[in-house]
Amino acid sequence: MADTFHTIAAPSEGIYREKMSRFLAFAVPIASVEEAKATVKRFQNEYHDARHVCWAYMLGSDRATFMSNDNGEPSGTAGRPILGQINSFGLTNVIIVVVRYFGGIKLGTSGLIVAYKEAAAEALRAASIIECHEQSVIDFSFPYVSMNSVMRAVKSPDIKILEQEFDNSCRMRVSIRSDYAAALKARLADVDGLTFA
Questions:
Q1: Which pLDDT score, from 0 to 100, does residue 2 have?
Q2: Which of 29, 39, 115, 192 is deepest in the core (most CB within 10 A)?
Q3: Strand-pair partners of 37
Q4: What's the CA gap between 76 and 43, in Å, rounded?
Q5: Do residues 43 and 96 touch, judged by C-beta distance below 8 A?
Q6: Confidence class of residue 9 from pLDDT cuts 50, 70 and 90?
Q7: Are 114 and 181 in the same domain?
Q8: Which residues constitute the domain of residue 54?
Q9: How far apart are CA 79 and CA 1, in angstroms?
Q10: What is the DSSP letter of 72?
């Protein structure tokens, strides 16, 4: 289904050592670019003494929103290999941050690529991968007399009521799996006096 994607259930960690350098990898589930930026900032603050804090993220069920950063490592040796692991695991809505503590021995371009790739893979191997569904939010208003019809239409384990207000004029906001949103809107359209926001 178009709205189905895979991500990680909870933060996970991995570690990779190469020629005295330590690569600490952290995989974190995220839902927005803002969350990704906040996660990067958090790790940069926490590991301010590290030589490099490199990262990559991917967002959306279509996996079209992504970014990577080498944070001072030679171009393409850190962020891209990390992003490559997110791709090879088929994940989205995840960020991987890899913190490098330099051990005094240079690894060279190919050594760095392998190290960042392996560190990211270690964090993902430690993660619990879950299937999720893209959600759509639907807002609508309806007269109180149509309450029973609305409640019948939204009574489903796939529908989560986010907000509801009952008065002479009632309002509701629901979240539903995107693949099912059109069918719900069609059911609600039959309710007397109901209007979509």
A1: 60
A2: 115
A3: none
A4: 21
A5: no
A6: confident
A7: no
A8: 4-132
A9: 30
A10: T
